[in-house]
Amino acid sequence: MRWGLYPRGPGAAALAAARNFWARPRLRCHPRGRGTARSVSGASNQPQSSSNGRYRDTVLLPQTSFPMKLLGRQQPDTELEIQQKCGFSELYSWQRERKVKTEFCLHDGPPYANGDPHIGHALNKILKDIANRYHMMRGSKIHFVPGWDCHGLPIEIKVLSELGGKAQNLSAVEIRKKARSFAEAAIKKQRSAFIRWGVMADWNNCYYTFDGKYEAKQLRIFYQMYEKGLVYRSYKPVFWSPSSRTALAEAELEYNPEHVSRSIYVKFPLLKPSPKLVSLIDGSSPVSFLVWTTQAWTIPANQAVCYMPDSKYAIVKCSTSGDLYVLAADKVTSVASALETTFEVISTFSGADLEGGTCAHPLIPDKASPLLPASHVTMTKGTGLVHTAPAHGMEDYSVASQHNLPTDCLVDEDGVFTDVAGPKLQNKAVLEEGTDVVIKMLQAAKHLLKEERLVHSYPYDWRTKKPVVIRASKQWFVNITDIKATAKELLKKVKFIPGSALNAMVETMDRRPYWCISRQRVWGVPIPVFHHKTKDEFLINSQTTEHIIKLVEQHGSDVWWTLPPEQLLPKEVLSQVGGADALEYVPGQDILDIWFDSGTSWSYVLPGTDQRADLYLEGKDQLGGWFQSSLLTSVATRKKAPFKTVVVHGFTLGEKGEKMSKSLGNVIDPDVVINGGQDQSAEPPYGADVLRWWVAESNVFTEVTISPSVLNAARDDISKLRNTLRFLLGNVAGFNPETDSIPVNNMHVIDQYMLHLLQDLANKITDSYKQYDFGKVVRLLRAFYTRELSNFYFSIIKDRLYCEKAGDPKRRSCQTALAEILDVMVRSFAPILPHLAEEVFQHVPYAKEPKSVFRTGWIRTSSIWKKPGLEEAIESTCAMRDSFLGSIPGKNAAEYEVIIVIEPGLLFEIIEMLQAEETSSTSQLNELMMASQTTLLSQDPPLVTTDVIERQGTFLINLEGGDIREESSYKVIVMPTTKEKCPRCWKYTAESSDTLCPRCAEVVNGNMKHLEGRCYVPLHLCLRGSSKFYI
Ligand SMILES: [Zn+2]
Questions:
Q1: Is 752 exposed, middle or buried (0-12, 13-18, 19+ CB in 10 A)?
Q2: Distance between Cα 870 and ligand 1 center (Å)
Q3: Does the global pTM surpass 0.85?
Q4: Which range, 250-264, 277-291, 642-656, 746-760, is most confident?
Q5: CA 886 to centroid of ligand 1, rounded, Å
Q6: Host H or E run for residue 266
Q7: What is the pLDDT of residues 238-286, one digit of tens each?
Q8: Distance, CA 998 to ligand 1 centroid (Å)?
């Protein structure tokens, strides 16, 4: 709203409104700690026009065209205008071209190129942008290249499902083509959202993992690791998704806590007892080993039963069957109760005594399953004896490799039993009918003791939402055991924020036995290996790989599927490796895990020879994902971490900490936050700055909640900030810092004190940005503009600003402080609210071109602003003011006069600095007291009428870091003023209600230039009738 458009001009209504918006007088006394906020009270000594408006044009009201509020669409529209006008899109290249020494490199973790931009993207990208903008303003050249992770199963599956039945007939090349255009469409949408959020980058030069040059770099890393023996092909159990027909990495799983398995207790009959066991059994009853498993379908692949050598085991007699069972001694009671029977313990022995024994496979009577010691056996569940199927468990596999047991897999890519499993099981899906048949077979063999349904957490394919199995297959692996130790050592030099993230990362790394990097899909980077058509041999060496890398670099990885074998393996390459014929080989069918794609981004994106980023900043899921794959590939190839600092943020959750999901209806779309929803009264258009303020304000190191009320609160914060800025802008009108500034030491004490606070604020803010603690920046700023400025300083200085002469040093002193405050404030929040910061800059009356806060550096404060001694003066005066205001609750302070009595001493000397005369209505002391007049005495006045209030207090002066300490008492005597209200400044300082107070008389009469026109201000300040006059 332009107040200048009021029909009566800037008169009484405008002034009253100004008071309302800029400082609501609060007539209460706050308890107050030293150096903290103080409330303004009784602030009604502001100028208002007299009833005839005679002096209204003689006061200097704030003027600025900076709008107080942006209503409805104005907010997002103004942001778009600012982006255009202030060159948001050119800022990245501008700052790259600067000649500066330091560079700050934030390496963008690539979001996945599927789906629409969501609130999680907003959190991540805005945090990065705040960090970048801060470092840029501090003078570093920013290296930030946004990227996208473009390959992978989720995109491939989406494309295939959209094609439906037609997908069956598509070639790999056709699927890849469709997957690429799908990814491109997603990238386009996400990019325009990121730009709209104000994220600074060169959006025409991003990186994409499907770019040929990127793929070539990635293959080079692959080959370097292969050459070092860190990449190998092996037959091992891996997580396998029958629904996607591919191996999956740990990061591609999600655990379903509601999964139901059919758990079973099975007897493994004793075949050959260990020597110790021989002595404990008499052969009168059959002996079996009790095993419990949740995966009945893995029983056919059993190769052993494992025990814990250090634990006690028992032979028990079952009261129901009379059979003897072996199980862990600790599990006797619980297992008996599960089997609804009782066990009588015959004897106990150590687990190690089982060594050398064997039991029979419950479905294949002649097959021996050795009893083996293993460290992974636990007593938390089951019987203390673990069924071991090396093809279907990582730990089982490791036991099998120690004892040279076979790792035969009876399950194919579709999760179906193969013919090797026998006719009863062949072609049956292991998790469905297969499980059922196995249980029936165990029942028929009389080895099943019990079956029950068990609800437990089970891994699912994160994309198809179907359960996975563990299945041995020939895959490519990265041997991370050899890399882990170095990686952990290097991590010690990396700064993690929060610090606990380091342990979390090490733990996830420790949990990973190996990294399976091959996938049996087509949308990805091929593993550049050729397989012999008839022999189980493969071909890969530096010549073949170099040739493929060159092709990929030029034409992209499509060549793997489009070029004939003789071009992928040309004669000259083959002749170097012994003259084999290309036609004897076929290109391998596996592609690389997308974590390998994105994990090698450092080699393509990071600048310089060092190729280390100053910062990686991602969500906590990346501790087991991108942070880790980046670290492992970097350590494997060059023995260094790709990052110096890692900042980890939480996930976005709903208001009550619940996950966001469409079904819960709590999904917040960033586009709706910015542009509003269908019902704009329920979902108003907030603009991007509100979204950014929310991001900055959140404690990002834990989970981050978002809801309509959170966003609304963010909007309110920004509105208050806007009002503060408007006051600052309005009151520096007509001020030129270069010519009008007052040297710090000549400024009013309160103005000097504000600079002192400002310097402290600036240091704390800079420090918080340095620590990436943007929430603290917001809290510091908010406290400053609400408490120190709006509630305190602004209410005190209005009289000086509005009623003194334009060029009066008292007024200039205040404006000097305001100009500094404005500058520090804008730079402080600029990284967080770039649109508002630039908008403010367009309204700074003395701003020089370029009018851009981002092109003019970081906060500049002066060490001479630091004046801790002033705290004593202001704090003690405020203590006395609190006594005064507390004594007249609900009253207008200006209608009272105050006598302050302080015994001679340090406190008196300090207060005397603020008022040299005994009694004054214009002193700095009286300004702070906001009274009609203040009298400063060192002893009690002689007379005191009955109509007075007396308050006493003490104040502890603490100077020079505690070297000077002195407690002084003071007395505040309050009485109604005998003066009348000045019709110009409204202070009770006039002799009669129709004469000006001495100060106003001097201001008005001393400047009368064109009395006839009833204008009483200097010509150059005569603003009457000017359309520029707003407040
Ligand atoms: Zn006056």
A1: buried
A2: 28
A3: no
A4: 746-760
A5: 26
A6: strand 253-272
A7: 999 999 888 887 777 889 999 999 999 999 999 999 988 888 888 788 8
A8: 7
